Amino acid sequence: MTKVTNALLSVTVVAVTACHPGPVLTPKLPADGTIAGIVTTVGNIAVPDRKVTAIHVSTGARYEAITAVNGGYTIRVPEGTYRLEVELQRGEGLAEQPAETKVDKSDLDERRDFTIR
Predict the structure, then answer these.
(1) Whole-structure pTM over 0.70, yes or no?
(2) Domain limits for position 88
(3) pLDDT exceeds cutoff 90 at 112
(4) Does residue 39 fall inside a structural domain?
């Protein structure tokens, strides 16, 4: 590739990833929708490097992402209803967590936020 092509590719990748609140882990099956949110503490401090898991209520299939520096996460999932969990460390609990999330085709379910106390 030429230097110009490499530069355009880099700009495109940065522009695309800047739209998501956190890393995207693509599941092995085709995804129909997206679940996104932010993990923070009660003091509104972002919590990076935490695993967030979307568990399909009917099948038990699990889809995971790791929170970014801003605490954001994005998970692509097939259509269905999901229970969301965040990895907690010893002594932590949840002050707030999202309710079950129903994902429809091409759906973006955002603001599925967790607050850790």
Answers:
(1) yes
(2) 22-116
(3) yes
(4) yes
Q: Is the pLDDT of residue 63 over 60?
A: yes
Number of domains in the chain: 1
3-state secondary structure of 12: helix
Q: What percent of the chain has pLDDT over 70?
A: 74
pLDDT at 46 (0 to 100): 98
Q: Long-range contacts: 19-22, Cβ < 8 Å, 24+?
A: 20/72, 20/74, 21/68, 21/70, 21/72, 21/73, 21/74, 21/110, 22/65, 22/66, 22/67, 22/68, 22/70, 22/71, 22/72, 22/73, 22/74
CATH at 77: 2.60.40.10
